[in-house]
Amino acid sequence: MALLNLKTLLALSFLLGSIALRLFTGVLTYSDEPSTTLFWKDNPSFSTEFVDITLPESAIIVRDENGFPGDAIYYFVVDYGWLFFGVIVAGLFISTGFRRKA
Q: Which positions, given as ranges, span the membrane (predicted)?
């Protein structure tokens, strides 16, 4: 039972983390150069792609040419992570509910 609670807590933390990434980070590309910047957004929003905006230096997390390290993982978590981890959390909650009834 404790292991199931740990799995649920872990999946729930990944769910909340992926939602926080979606709301509070963005990717900036420039139309005239190939660099990509991952940055913190001032206001939460569901849009993650930005083009040619000015950022304060303190908002930049990582900047690199032709994508930043781990960008495939970032895009997966931001685009599909909330759904993936949401299904896992829902399944764990449902399975614990069935076990308690039995």
A: 72-94
